[in-house]
Specification:
Radius of gyration: 60 Å
Strand order of the largest sheet: 1-2-3-5-4
Number of strands: 30
Number of helices: 10
Structural class: alpha+beta
Low-confidence stretches: 21-26, 573-610
Distance between the termini: 209 Å
Length: 610
């Protein structure tokens, strides 16, 4: 019995020891153990962790990113026990997982406390980079590398740097970190310190951080200020890169500071003397200077008179003759030119310069060399709707107006006879130096045929003319020597019933009285009606009076009879003596009849009075 009880007790103790041993084994798996390096065999490290058998760990797991493993026998290391033994009877150990477990524990504490962690960027992946956080691998998005986009991440690779954990999931092994958050926090601290001591007019030293088309951003030690291109130098600068380079240390002055928006405007030229002070006395109006062309625009060219002092030569002041031309075809950049000061505005910092004023005025030279009335020959440069432009000596043009092309043709018809590049003779009519205009004439090379035709003809003369055209408004006629006239419909006859243009035919000769000589329109105004009225008046003055009592018909009859008598006397000289007596008798009878009527009229008036 005693032996049986003893055997039972031994079995229970063995079972308890076995269970305890198995329980401890289960507790050891998945935990981090401290072991000793026994040996290094090729790419493996043999580690003793106090178990029944040693374990093997890959040598590369003991190396850091970018570094080789520094390990020797006898070193103590921490490893992760995955299984007590594998099929070879060795313990399955992992140094990487041990580091990861240890690192995760520390990272979780840092994440909960919102503390920064130290890591090193060691690889590039899609959308960002991989970071080693002491064994745990984290993801660094590309947008979280720096405050501004970084083109080259090479200098940051393998360098220990602080990071901020943004997201952490241990079950998925996911960690997201940010370097930008650390920089912004540090920058905010530095910015607050710098801004608290910032004052307008203060001179600081900074580093050029970025260059744009409109200026450069300067790092003042945690805070950036804008150095505008116009505040870099007193002289004209097309691009900030002409003077500055990224990473360059510069001295700048605080021009403006907005505490609300915390925008800082900086200046470099303010540290130098202003060259515009006293510029009006240095560059008086009317004086000539030699300068260098610094910039060419569509509206002119900028000429540097001295460093920091530039003036504008407007396109209208560049040439006497070349008007509609780009300034780049007259001057070129860096060319030295002589200019004249036209105006100085020291307050607006503007100087107006002239290039053509340093040359002779071709209009004045032309006026001196070719007075009015001179005949020249030139090439037709252009034909417009209002005349011809003819090239003249001195590289200038004169204009022949439509009205000065021909005496006979209208301007619209005469201009059809000319072609561009044709050589023509012209006569100078007028030279206006102020307006830079020269008036030319072609018809003035010949005498005016109208003036010759109407020479000796004056208003009130009765002329014989030939009908050349009949229209509803009247009759157009031509007199001797080619002068053209016109008889209005109302002037065709004394009686309204006879004022019909259709009474006349082309080629018919008529007598008319000249009522107007218009030398400008080169036409005569004539009137048949005025001639008839004048003839009637002469007949009245000759054969009757206002108190004779004779009728107009009787007077005209007498005048016509006398005219007939004169014609007959010329035709038959032998009967000339008898016909005047008859005419006189008839005239006497007409006078007697008129006297009788007058007496009868007087008697009637007396009777009415009685």
């Amino acid at each position: 019995m005693a032996n049986t009880a003893s055997d039972t007790s031994k079995k229970e103790d063995f079972a308890a020891l076995l269970n305890e041993s198995l329980g401890e084994t289960e507790r050891l798996e998945g935990s981090v153990l401290r072991g000793t390096v026994i040996s290094i065999e090729g790419d493996d490290v043999l580690v003793d962790v106090g178990l029944k058998s040693e374990g093997r760990v890959a040598l590369k797991e003991f190396s850091s990113p970018g570094k080789q493993a520094e390990l020797k026998p006898g070193d103590e290391v921490e490893v992760y026990l995955e299984r007590m033994e594998n099929r070879n009877g060795e313990a399955m150990l992992s140094r990487e997982k041990a580091r990861r477990e240890e690192s995760w524990n520390q990272l979780e504490k840092a994440f909960e406390a919102a503390e920064r962690v130290t890591g090193a960027i060691f690889g590039r992946v899609k959308g960002g980079f991989t970071v080693d956080l002491g064994g745990a691998v984290a993801f660094l998005p590309g947008s979280q590398v720096d405050i501004r986009p970084v083109r080259d991440v090479g200098p940051l690779m393998g360098t220990p740097q602080p990071f901020q954990i943004l997201k952490m999931d241990r079950s998925r092994g996911n960690i997201v970190v940010s370097r930008r958050a650390v920089l912004e926090e540090t920058r905010a601290e530095q910015r607050a310190e710098v801004v608290s001591n910032l004052q307008e007019g203060q001179v600081l030293q900074g580093v050029v951080k970025n260059i744009t088309d409109y200026g450069a951003f300067v790092d003042l030690g945690g805070v950036d200020g804008l150095l505008h291109v116009t505040d870099i130098s007193w002289k004209r600068i097309n691009h900030p890169s002409e003077v500055l380079a990224i990473g360059q240390s510069v001295d700048v002055q605080v021009i403006r500071f907005n505490s609300e928006t915390q925008r800082i405007s900086l200046g470099m030229k303010q540290l130098e003397a202003d060259p515009w002070e006293g510029v009006a006395a240095k560059y008086p109006v009317g004086t000539k200077f030699v300068g260098r062309v610094t910039n060419i625009t569509d509206y002119g060219a900028f000429v540097e008179l001295e460093p920091g002092i530039e003036g504008l030569v407007h396109v209208s002041e560049m040439s006497w003759t070349k008007k509609n031309i780009h300034p780049g075809k007259i001057v070129s950049t860096s060319q030295e030119v002589e200019v004249m000061v036209l105006d100085v505005d020291e307050q607006k910092r503007r100087i107006s310069l002239g290039l053509k004023q340093t040359m002779d005025n071709p209009w004045e030279s032309f006026q001196d060399n070719f007075p009015v009335g001179t005949e020249l020959e030139g090439e037709i440069k252009n034909i417009t709707e209002f005349g011809l432009f003819v090239g003249l000596p001195g590289d200038i043009d004169g204009m022949v107006h439509l009205s000065d092309l021909s005496w006979e043709k209208s301007g619209e018809d005469a201009i059809q006879d000319f072609t561009k590049a044709e050589m023509v003779k012209v006569k100078i009519l007028d030279v206006d130096v102020t307006k830079e205009r020269i008036s030319l004439g072609i018809k003035q090379l010949e005498s005016d045929p109208f003036a010759s035709a109407v020479e000796g003809v004056k208003k009130g003369d009765v002329v014989t003319c030939t009908v050349t055209e009949v229209n509803d408004a009247g009759v157009e006629v031509a007199i001797a020597d080619g002068a053209v006239g016109f008889i209005r419909k109302a002037d065709l006859a004394r009686d309204r019933s006879d004022q019909r243009p259709d009474r006349f035919a082309v080629g018919e000769k008529v007598d008319a009285k000249i009522t107007n000589v218009d030398r400008k329109s080169r036409k005569l105004s004539l009137s048949i009606k005025a001639r008839e009225i004048e003839e009637e008046k002469e007949a009245m003055d000759t054969y009757g009076s206002s108190d004779s009592g004779a009728s107009l018909g009787e007077i005209l009859g007498a005048a016509l009879s006398q005219a007939k008598q004169g014609a007959e006397e010329k035709a038959e000289p032998k009967k000339a003596a008898a016909k005047p007596k008859k005419a006189a008798t008839k005239a006497k009878k007409a006078d007697d009849a008129a006297d009788d009527k007058a007496d009868e009229k007087a008697e009637g008036e007396d009777e009415s009075d009685a």
